[in-house]
Design brief:
The structure holds 2 protein chains of 2 kinds.
Chain A (H helix, E strand, L loop, with lengths): L3 H20 L3 H26 L3 H31 L13
Chain B lengths: L1 H34 L3 H21 L3 H26 L14 H24 L12 H8 L4 H22 L10 H10 L39 H6 L22
The chains are: A mainly alpha, B mainly alpha.
C-alpha cells in the first residue's frame, strides 16, 4: 500500500476540522475541531517521517501533542470563565468588543 | 529483488486492509462530528477518531507516538473536554441554524477548494515516490534525538506546560465577591423576610397517580403549577414535564368490564 494514502486522509480530516471551526457555534465543539486539525497535521508528520525514513517528523509530532495539550488546558479554562460570566458557551455571544 | 518485492507485498497487505477499513471510518466519524447536535456525541466521535489515528501511528512504525496519542488525547484531553461539558453543557443551546447568512455554503465551497488543492498538491509531491521506511524499534532512536538535538525545545516545552497549568489555575480561580451566607443568616432571612410563604421550605414537586417524579411541578389549590417546586436546573434544561399531561380529566376512568 502506498504510504501517501495516509496523507490524503490527513488532508481530509484537516479540511473537515476547518469547516467545523467555521460552521459550529458551540465553543467546545469548535475547540474539538481545532484538535482534529492538529491531529491531522500530526498524522502527516508521522507519514512523512515514514516516507523519508527520518525520525525528525515524529519528534515534531510529539511537540505538537504537548502544545495541543497546553492549548486545550488554557482554552477550556477560558471557556469556563466566559461561561461563568455570560452563562453561555456559544461563540456568537462573546461579541462585546463589537459594540 | 523479487524476494524483496514479495516481502514488501506481504507486509503491506494487512496494513492496506487496516487502512481501507479504518480510514473511511475516521473520515465518516469526523464528518458526523460536525453534523451531530449534542456536544457530548461530538466528543465521543472525536475520541473514536483519535483512537483510529493512534492505530495509524502504530501501523507506521511510530509505536511511541501511538501510545502517547491514546494516553494524552483519548485519556487526558478528551476526558477534560467531557468534564468541561459537564460543567458548561447544561444549556443545550447549540442550534445548527446558521447565524451568519450564507456562511455554510461559503464554508463548504472553501473547504472543497482547499481540500482539492491539498490533495492534488500531496499527490504531485508524493506520487511515484517509494517510501524509505523506518526501523521497527525506533523508540530508543527517538529518545536519543529528543534528548540530544531537541533538548532545548524539550526544555522550552516543559516551561510552556508549567505556564499553561498556572494560566489555567489563574483563569479558573473564582474570587468570591459577596460573602457566603451562613446557615444562621439564611434562617433569619427566611423567617424575618417580607413574607412567610417559604418559611417552611419550597414546595416539593408533584406526585401524581400516573407519574411520581421530580420533573413535574406541584399544583396549587387553584390548579396552577407551583413555580418553585421543580429544581431550577431541570426547568432551565427543559426537562420539566407539563402537568397537564397528568390531568385527571384525561385519565380514562372507565372500568372496562371483563367477561
Amino acid at each position: 500500500m502506498d504510504a501517501s494514502n495516509y496523507l490524503y486522509v490527513s488532508a481530509l480530516l484537516f479540511t473537515i476540522g476547518a469547516v467545523g471551526v467555521v460552521v459550529r457555534r458551540n465553543a467546545i465543539v469548535v475547540f474539538m475541531c481545532i484538535e482534529l486539525m492538529l491531529n491531522a497535521a500530526n498524522l502527516s508528520f508521522v507519514t512523512f517521517s515514514r516516507i523519508n525514513g527520518d525520525l525528525n517528523g515524529q519528534v515534531m509530532a510529539f511537540f505538537t501533542m504537548v502544545v495541543a495539550a497546553c492549548e486545550v488546558v488554557v482554552g477550556l479554562a477560558i471557556i469556563v470563565t466566559i461561561y461563568r460570566s455570560r452563562r453561555s458557551a456559544s461563540v456568537d455571544d462573546a461579541s462585546l468588543l463589537k459594540r | 529483488m523479487l524476494e524483496l518485492a514479495l516481502e514488501v507485498g506481504q507486509t503491506a497487505k494487512p496494513e492496506a486492509v487496516m487502512f481501507w477499513i479504518l480510514g473511511p471510518l475516521a473520515v465518516v466519524a469526523s464528518l458526523a462530528m460536525l453534523l451531530v447536535k449534542k456536544a457530548v456525541h461530538s466528543a465521543i466521535l472525536m475520541a473514536f477518531v483519535m483512537i483510529i489515528l493512534a492505530v495509524f501511528y502504530i501501523a507506521q512504525d511510530a509505536a511511541f507516538l501511538g501510545i502517547v496519542q491514546i494516553v494524552v488525547y483519548t485519556g487526558a484531553v478528551m476526558m477534560l473536554f467531557l468534564f468541561i461539558l459537564m460543567l458548561v453543557g447544561v444549556d443545550s443551546s447549540d442550534s445548527l441554524t446558521e447565524t451568519i447568512r450564507g456562511l455554510r455554503p461559503i464554508a463548504i465551497t472553501a473547504a472543497v477548494g482547499f481540500g482539492g488543492l491539498m490533495v492534488s498538491l500531496l499527490g504531485q509531491a508524493t506520487i511515484g515516490r517509494q517510501s524509505v521506511g523506518l526501523a521497527q524499534a525506533n523508540v530508543q532512536a527517538l529518545a536519543q534525538l529528543l534528548f540530544s538535538t531537541y533538548v532545548w525545545p524539550f526544555e522550552v516545552v516543559s516551561a510552556l506546560l508549567i505556564t499553561a497549568a498556572l494560566g489555567a489555575m489563574v483563569l479558573a480561580h473564582h474570587q468570591r465577591t459577596i460573602i457566603r451566607p451562613t446557615q444562621r443568616q439564611l434562617s433569619i432571612d427566611r423567617f424575618r423576610g417580607e413574607s412567610l410563604g417559604t418559611a417552611a421550605g419550597l414546595p416539593s414537586p408533584g406526585v401524581y397517580a400516573r407519574h411520581n417524579a421530580v420533573d413535574v411541578p406541584a399544583l396549587l389549590p387553584d390548579g396552577t403549577p407551583a413555580a418553585g417546586s421543580v429544581n431550577a436546573t431541570l426547568s432551565a434544561r427543559g426537562d420539566m414535564l407539563d402537568y397537564k399531561k397528568f390531568d385527571l380529566s384525561e385519565v380514562n376512568t372507565k372500568v372496562e368490564e371483563e367477561k
